[in-house]
Amino acid sequence: MLKQILGKLPRKSSKADSFDSTGSNSGNNTANLGNGIQFTNSCNVVSARLNVVKRMSSAIFPSSNAAAVEMMEPHVSFKDVSNSEKQNLFVSKLNLCCSTYDFNNSDKNCAEKDLKCQTLVELVDFVASGSAKFTEPAIASMCKMCAINLFRDFPPKCRSYSARGETEDDEPTFDPAWSHLQLVYDLLLGFISYNSLDVKVAKKFIDHSFISRLLDLFDSEDPRERDCLKTILHRVYAKFMVHRPHIRKSVSNIIYRFVFETERHNGIAELLEIFGSVITGFAIPLKEEHKMFLWRALIPLHKPKSVGIYHQQLTYCIVQFVEKEPRLASTVIKGLLKYWPVRSSQKELMFLSELEEILEKINTTEFENIMIPLFRRIGCCLNSSHFQVAERAHFLWNNDHILNLIMPHRQVIFPIIFSALERNTQNHWNQAVLNLTQNVRKMFYEMDEELVLACQGKFAEEDSKSRVAAERRRLTWERLETAADFQFSVARSNVSGLIKPAACAVTC
This protein's superkingdom (predicted)? Predict the structure, then answer.
């Protein structure tokens, strides 16, 4: 009965028989179950069909070099492979360098660290040779390797950047992994500087995210790392024009956060040094975006206590703006007066030096707009009890350009500063400041004798008035003190009359 039922079942189609007969031995495609019934092994049929599908897909989508890269031995030297295989070997070595190690423990993974160091040296030499044209997989692998090795969050102890003083010289912190980090930076710099690098392809991987992470590294406490980053960012800005607005905006945000929130950042000086050369290349007239960077970022950088660390680079940037567009000089000087220090003599010295450089670039029209508030502040500096500040303020008259600006406006300027010079002559404690004050007075006397005499007469009149007012205030205070003493004595006597001594209840 069973045989009759099985005999009525349909046999395998001829298409399957033909495919099986052409694919492999039919004895291998069937299995004998011991009861006389044979079934075709469907696994071989499926695998054969998959092979057909793979051949068809490879014809439509050409396979990449990923398989070749995986098969390429990364320990092989570039000299031992043909030029067609060097790109695959390059990617293979980059993948080998994606492994990271703990460099705080010098006894851990020593062999792996040495191998990685040797591989990085080979990669640096290969890029420096200039004999390759990097493909898209090579560019992607390069950016991936750099991101894995460089982009990292600094531990809290490395971000405890205190608001250091202007002259405080702290010991720099050196990263224990610098021996490997330096090689990665050298490789990245050589790669970006490569003449035949396809910028259109590279910008897919060196994108806004990559650049933002690169800018975050400027907060490193290792000055060697910041110096490498400075060179690399400068090359990126020069080569990838499409990223220039993003770089400027990102640096502005870093400065905003530093000035108005944290006052903690280690790389402000390096960022300003980069922008010093960037500002030099700005076209004239300046765009509104560049002026906003001056008003909102550079001028407020005078506010933090640690301005001495980056003041030289900041002054250079501001002077470059004034050279590009002299009309900005009055705006810059107003910003300096706004943030002028009142308790730090070292910051005052820096501000006076910067002020002199700006005045050397200013024109007459802009000078007239700010000369009154400017020389009020200079008068305070002339009369400063800190002898270095007073000396530096007097040295402004040794600058011929500034003196030429003052002479046509001496009728306005000299009365403002004359009182400070007179007070120095009367009671300043430093002999060097007294000598400089006499020299400035003599200069003005030779320049305009009548003006000096008029200022002396006015100063004497105001001085006598101030003395009379001071004497009047003294007498008023004496009368108030006498009246207060009298009222206190009357109130005391009244209180003593109201209080009677208690009777003694104990019989002696």
Answer: Eukaryota
Asked if residue 62 has a cis previous peptide bond (ω within 30° of 0), the answer is: no
Q: pLDDT tens for residues 263-273?
A: 999 999 999 99
255 close to 292: Cβ distance less than 8 angstroms = no
State how far the Cα of 454 lies from the Cα of 457, in Å rounded to an integer.
5
CA angle 353/312/300 to nearest 5° reads: 85
Burial label, 152 (beta-carbon count in 10 A; 0-12, 13-18, 19+): middle
Render pLDDT for 102-149 as a digit per residue (tens, 0 to 9): 887 777 888 888 999 999 999 999 999 887 788 999 999 999 999 999
Please count the residues of the chain. Answer: 508
The tokens describing 385, both together, are 């009890």
DSSP 461-473: HHHHHHHHHHHHH
When computed from its CA atoms, the radius of gyration of the chain, rounded to whole angstroms, is 41
Residues 58, 52: Cα–Cα separation, whole Å: 10
For residues 438 and 444, give the distance between their C-alpha atoms in angstroms, rounded to a whole number: 10
Distant-in-sequence, close-in-space partners of 218: CB < 8 Å, separation ≥ 6:
226, 229, 254, 265, 266, 267, 270, 271
Going by the DSSP 8-state scheme, the letter that residue 206 receives in this structure is S
